């Protein structure tokens, strides 16, 4: 991977593993949160439901990679529908939270939780790869390269989200750049859908074509899902 990817990955790991781990645990729980965060939570739930709706209702016999799984909500839903899931995240702290949350679940045995990079070639092959909001901090070229690395390990479809280039997200990205580096969140990188399609088409993606896409906006949360189907 590029130096830019590795630098970004380090910032993301630090952010989710240290700076924001508690806030993230809360956001992904049922705990009461501010109205702003409640809107974000509602948007993320809609996005998770959208991605789940793009998978077959019955996932028995399917192997799924939950790439950048956070606290494991998507993995749990997929396992409840019969999938065997490898759920991996850079943050050992979030994987620890996922492990605690899944411990009580009857489908826990169908989920393998790992701390590490979703692009590791040690994870095996999958029917579906799902990356919900885990590529939104990377440059468009690195998103395309990441999908290209995952492609040979996926037999049916890859579902991922990107931060669409809206005026609000672009402005927030610009404002974020004014602050000094430190513990601030690694900025979300807005990506134009057209630019992404060109990158994916130009040899960056072996054997897959973009099909459905759907945008979810809820308060400060804006994210767009894209489905890539193996041809
Ligand atoms: C915004 S959170 C989303 C988590 C989860 N997918 C969800 O929707 O609840 C992004 C997550 O992606 C993870 N992530 C980012 N890059 C990754 C990589 N290269 N490999 C594994 N996880 C990664 C981060 O550690 C973080 O937990």
Describe this structure in a few short sentences.
This protein has 231 residues and is α/β, with parallel strands linked by helices. The chain has helices at residues 3-19, 21-27, 35-53, 73-80, 92-103, 140-150, 167-176, 193-204; strands spanning 63-67, 84-89, 111-115, 126-131, 154-162, 208-218, 221-230. The protein has one domain (3-230): Vaccinia Virus protein VP39 (Rossmann fold, 3-Layer(aba) Sandwich).
Attribute tags:
7-stranded mixed sheet, 231 residues, 42% helix, alpha/beta, Rossmann fold, 7 strands, 8 helices, single chain, globular
Account of the protein in words:
The protein has 231 residues and is of the alpha/beta class. The chain is built from 8 helices and 7 strands, in the order H-H-H-E-H-E-H-E-E-H-E-H-H-E-E. It has helices at residues 3-19, 21-27, 35-53, 73-80, 92-103, 140-150, 167-176, 193-204, and strands spanning 63-67, 84-89, 111-115, 126-131, 154-162, 208-218, 221-230. It has a 7-stranded mixed beta sheet, with helices on both faces. Helix 1 (3-19) crosses helix 2 (21-27) and helix 6 crosses helix 8 (193-204). 37% of the residues are buried.
SSE topology:
Blueprint: H1 3-19, H2 21-27, H3 35-53, E1 63-67, H4 73-80, E2 84-89, H5 92-103, E3 111-115, E4 126-131, H6 140-150, E5 154-162, H7 167-176, H8 193-204, E6 208-218, E7 221-230
Helix pairs in contact: 1-2, 6-8
The structure holds S-adenosylmethionine (SAM).
The tally of helices reads 8
Query: The CATH topology, please?
Result: Rossmann fold
Q: Domain count, please report it.
A: 1
Radius of gyration: 17 Å
Spans with pLDDT under 50 lasting ≥5 residues? none
SS elements, strand count:
7
Largest sheet: 7 strands, mixed
CATH superfamily: Vaccinia Virus protein VP39
User: What characteristic shape results from the CA principal axes?
Assistant: globular
The N- and C-terminal alpha carbons lie at a distance of 26 Å
CATH architecture: 3-Layer(aba) Sandwich
Strand order of the largest sheet: 3-2-1-4-5-7-6
Q: Helix/strand-derived class?
A: alpha/beta
Q: If you average the pLDDT, what whole number results?
A: 92
Percent range of helical residues: 40-55%
């Amino acid at each position: 991977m590029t130096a830019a990817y590795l630098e970004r990955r380090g910032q993301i790991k630090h952010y989710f593993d240290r700076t924001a781990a508690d806030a993230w645990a809360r956001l992904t729980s049922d705990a009461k949160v501010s109205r702003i965060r409640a809107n974000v939570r509602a948007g993320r739930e809609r996005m998770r439901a959208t991605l789940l709706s793009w998978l077959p209702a019955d996932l028995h016999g399917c192997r799924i990679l939950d790439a950048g799984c956070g606290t494991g909500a998507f993995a749990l839903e997929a396992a409840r529908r019969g999938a065997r899931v490898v759920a991996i995240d850079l943050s050992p702290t979030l994987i620890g939270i996922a492990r605690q949350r899944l411990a009580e679940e009857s489908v826990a045995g169908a989920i393998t939780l790992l701390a590490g990079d979703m692009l590791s070639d040690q994870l095996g092959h999958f029917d579906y790869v799902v990356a919900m909001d885990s590529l939104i901090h990377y440059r468009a070229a690195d998103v395309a390269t990441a999908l290209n690395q995952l492609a040979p390990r996926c037999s049916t479809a890859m579902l991922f989200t990107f931060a669409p280039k809206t005026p609000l997200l672009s402005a927030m990205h610009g404002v974020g750049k004014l602050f000094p580096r430190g513990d601030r969140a690694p900025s979300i990188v807005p990506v134009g859908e057209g630019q992404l399609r060109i990158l994916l088409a130009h040899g960056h993606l072996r054997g897959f074509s973009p099909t459905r896409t759907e945008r979810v906006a809820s308060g400060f949360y804006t994210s767009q899902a894209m489905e890539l189907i193996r041809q």
